[in-house]
Amino acid sequence: MYPSDLKYTKDHEWVRVEGQQAQVGITDYAQKQLGDVVYLELPDVGRRLNKGDVFGTIESVKAVSELYSPVTGEVAEVNARLTEKPEGVNSDPHGSWMIVLQIANAGETSDLLDAAQYIELTK
């Protein structure tokens, strides 16, 4: 259910670390809690984020939620296709990345949860 090649946050974001970059999206658990996603606001490329900063918002038919940066870094890429069709988060949450961060402090990735820890968190 939760891919083992991803890391997870307690705020229900997933992170795919590849070298000095991290793709970030929301977990299946998060999208189920939100319901049908209708709008996604993401940051501009080049924006600097500290770990824990709000990088955007996701709106569903039920609620509006903030999205949090799992690590410190600079936004290197934004998934514009997802902002045009935010419902992709519901159909493929672990394949629908939102932003790519250029990681500033690789040590912060050790604070992320593995799949087993995340499953335990969401029980």
Number of domains: 1
Looking at this structure, what is the CATH superfamily? RNA polymerase II/Efflux pump adaptor protein, barrel-sandwich hybrid domain
Total helical elements: 4
Structural class designation: alpha+beta
Largest sheet descriptor = 6 strands, antiparallel
Question: Beta-strand percentage?
Answer: 35-45%
Helix content range: 10-25%
CATH class term: Mainly Beta
Q: What's the helix-strand series?
A: EEEHEEEEEHHEH
Low-confidence runs of at least 5 consecutive residues:
none
Strand order of the largest sheet: 1-2-3-9-8-5
Q: Could you report the average pLDDT, rounded to the nearest whole number? A: 97
Taking all Cα atoms into account, the compactness measure Rg is 13 Å
User: Which term fits the overall shape?
Assistant: globular
**CATH-defined topology:** OB fold (Dihydrolipoamide Acetyltransferase, E2P)
CATH architecture: Beta Barrel
How does this structure look, described?
The chain is of the alpha+beta class. It has one domain (7-121): OB fold (Dihydrolipoamide Acetyltransferase, E2P) (Beta Barrel). The protein is built from 4 helices and 9 strands, in the order βββαβββββααβα. Strand 6 and strand 7 form a beta hairpin. The longest helix has 7 residues, at 28-34. It is globular. 33% of the residues are buried.
